[in-house]
Amino acid sequence: MHPANKWRRAKRETPIYLKTGLILILALIFVFPIVMTILNSFMSSDEIVANYGMLFDKNTDPWAMPTAPELPWISPSAHFKLIPDLVSVQQYVEILFKSTDYLIKFWNSVFLVLPIVAGQIFIGALAAYGFTRFRGRIAQLIFFSYIILMLMPFQVTLVPNYLVAEWFGLLDNPLSIILPGVFSTFSVFLLTKYMRRIPRDYLEVAQLDGAGHWAIFTQIMLPMCKTALYSLAVLVFIDYWNMVEQPIIFLSDPLKHPLSVFLVKVNEGDIGLAFAASTLYMIPALLMFFHGEQYLVEGITHSGLKG
Amino acid sequence: MTRRNPLRNLPALAKGKLSALWIMLRDKLRRDWPAVLFLTPSMIGTGLFFFIPFILVIGYSLVDNPVMMRFVFLRNYVDLLTNQAYLQAAGNTLLFSLISLPLVVVMSLLLAMLLNGKLKAKSALRSLFLSPLLVPVASVVLVWQVVFSYHGALNSTLSGWTWLVDSGWLPVDWLKSSNARYVIIGLYLWKNLGYNMVLFLAALNNVPSHLTDSARVDGATAWQRFMSITLRFITPTLLFTTIISFINSFKVFRETYLLAGDYPYDVLYMLQHFMNNMFRSLDYQKLSAAAIVMALVMIGIIGALFIVETRSGKDLEDN
């Protein structure tokens, strides 16, 4: 390339680079908490306590100026520390092999969330097919009531959920969380919107060929909705992986709590392991992100389209 | 298969209402039974876990207690609406929503417009802004505590600024003072900006570029182009985002609980905290009344937003 051209091009692109740089700084603020948590998980427990131990020191008067606490090696106030003095997997060894609490809670989370994701999508797909093929006045009314239900916050829905759980003796049983989750109408809503965009001709041709509804549903509808199903799986997973409200109300036995709730207690009681436990809990969500980011974006976009 | 006109059955209705009704139902069922089958699992589930018990919730809100079941009409509502804790929780939640809602909508729109311009590594930047949405709040709450605790990083940084300390500034316990509200708003924005940004990016993509381009040629300023073209096209998304953010703002209890626990500082005492206390004391009357008040408020606000949306939609079609 001719040097003059090169110069011209650089001149043209400088503002773009500048703008990109500015936005990048902003974006780095956004990922900072995540990056810091992951990097800190590779510090030894002693280093963590030395850096952050004073945050949860119950003995110090919260209104006193930061002073040297009883243990002289704990720094009086916290500083960001990203790079460990010594890279260590001690925290991970501890939470994975020595103290079983974390793994139990992690599996609690898995066994709560996976059935919800699978069940909600299956039930949702069935109902969405119903709403797509048949649009009588009654179906419209039911669909409308589903949307209203979807828009209701926990402060409304948890009360009826609680009453039912009590009737069936499900309190303190993971089913009290799983079942309402399975029947949540978010996936019905999203999948109905998606299915209604599929041209009717496909389905009618299949019908003329003698395919029944079940065959049309499993062999035409579901394959055509693959993207939507993946998107939904990502969205529902993220939402329930982050759950807090239901476990603290429905599960009085802390042993059954998911890690999302248990982590707070780790933070207070066992800060030396907290960063590794936090990172462990992030991993499935991050994997989903790296694997299915375009599905996530598509799912969000789709939830906003008019159906 | 032709659709039957229900009016055809009118004479029959006059003769034998029941039998005519039965015929109508039978015809409907014959035509629609597959729909009924596909909808059944979902309808049983939502009926059993949401709609039927909700009727019971309405009932509980009108009686003195679940055992005696004496009808007291609105007394539970009066009790609720004069309850100090409830009023504080409702006030805090409302104030939080009112402050954070415009912030999250405007900021995410700005972010989307920034990302919509000419940039390098656009999709990587978008991923960075989306990442907080992915990560469970519990996983990063520690970092927020490191920053905002009394002995945290923010205070120790600010204490290092001599001019600030000289002017009489004292370290603040950010999470145990009225500042906590702003910390939570920050956390909410951090978590939710990405979702809205994606919605806005899709909407901005649909703004026809020939309109903005020709407006530019005609000498319209960026502000004019935004107000008269872009805004027009993204209004439906704007309203949808507002509704979604409004609903999400009631989930901020998560952040609050994880950061400050069951008994947070006054300004962080949210509706869900109140509900949790009522669950703990099994106060069905207050729980039911609170749920119904909340449902009515939600229906009112969302209904209003929907009406605005359909109006603006018509406005766009008329032009």
Can you lay out the helices and strands and say which pair or pack?
The complex is a heterodimer of chains A (307) and B (319).
Chain A: H1 3-40, H2 45-52, H3 90-98, H4 101-133, H5 137-151, H6 154-167, H7 175-182, H8 186-195, H9 200-208, H10 213-224, H11 226-241, H12 245-250, H13 259-269, H14 271-304
Helix pairs in contact in A: 3-14, 4-7, 4-8, 4-11, 8-11, 9-10, 11-14, 13-14
Chain B: H1 10-15, H2 17-60, H3 75-81, H4 84-116, H5 122-134, H6 137-148, H7 153-159, H8 162-166, H9 180-205, H10 209-217, H11 222-248, H12 253-260, H13 271-280, H14 284-318
Please provide a written account of the structure.
- The complex is a heterodimer of chains A (about 300) and B (about 325).
- Helices cover about 75% and strands about 0% of the residues of chain A.
- By secondary structure, chain A is mostly helical.
- The longest helix of chain A has about 40 residues.
- Chain A is flat, with a radius of gyration of 26 Å.
- Chain B has 2 domains: about 55 residues, no CATH class; about 240 residues, MetI-like (MetI-like fold).
- Chain B is about 75% helix and about 0% strand.
- Chain B contains 14 helices and no strands.
